[in-house]
């Protein structure tokens, strides 16, 4: 299986298709996105509970955060693979329901390879992050420790006047880190799709992700620019809508205002999950789908006989 280069405007097509995702089976797609969203909150809730009970120092808090991230990868990777397969089923008019996101956990569901890819990508994130901090982040860890100490002392609030001056290399670190993050996001989207939908072993899927992203840097970059620019007006509109709803509800009772905003916020998050995974799916499909899929036939189904992580 080879990767393909797409046109410079392909990213806009992925976004458009992601926004339109669910038109074939809205109940399955949005229901599965809601399940995925709820599962995604569990590690964060557990992290908050541990922090509130143990009240660790900054180093302990970072260890708890690392443990929560590891749990998130192990827990979410199979759900994400199940969601991508559900999307593929709806796009090919195959029967699908929201409960299909649990399928990777069943016997022969390939959860091990999905988790393996997530863990391998996380290892690369850590290696690249350590390398960047080593080169550009002199004094960054000490600065973060001081900021976290101030945050704990202020019960989550920080007086801006007390925040120490940021290290000199922070700007270079953020700039280069953003570029690498964008590249790794493409690698993850393509590679994870190859594991979940293309039936590729983890190491080959990783290679496909790197090569496929390198071939499609321009459309991925354009997509990122469009998303950043679009987030400004969309964010302002949403802020106004939430503000009006909260104000109207608050006139009756402050609790009512919060009660009205919460379902709107949850609905927005579900929509964002659908669009995000829709973009991920269409990116993978355009870059990696085999030649026979160009004729409208489905790509090869992922293997179902792997019980261990295949590297």
TrEMBL record:
<feature type="transmembrane region" description="Helical">
    <location>
        <begin position="114"/>
        <end position="136"/>
    </location>
</feature>
<feature type="transmembrane region" description="Helical">
    <location>
        <begin position="173"/>
        <end position="197"/>
    </location>
</feature>
<feature type="transmembrane region" description="Helical">
    <location>
        <begin position="217"/>
        <end position="248"/>
    </location>
</feature>
<protein>
    <recommendedName>
        <fullName>YihY/virulence factor BrkB family protein</fullName>
    </recommendedName>
</protein>
<feature type="transmembrane region" description="Helical">
    <location>
        <begin position="260"/>
        <end position="284"/>
    </location>
</feature>
<feature type="transmembrane region" description="Helical">
    <location>
        <begin position="29"/>
        <end position="54"/>
    </location>
</feature>
<keyword id="KW-0472">Membrane</keyword>
<feature type="transmembrane region" description="Helical">
    <location>
        <begin position="60"/>
        <end position="84"/>
    </location>
</feature>
<keyword id="KW-0812">Transmembrane</keyword>
<keyword id="KW-1133">Transmembrane helix</keyword>
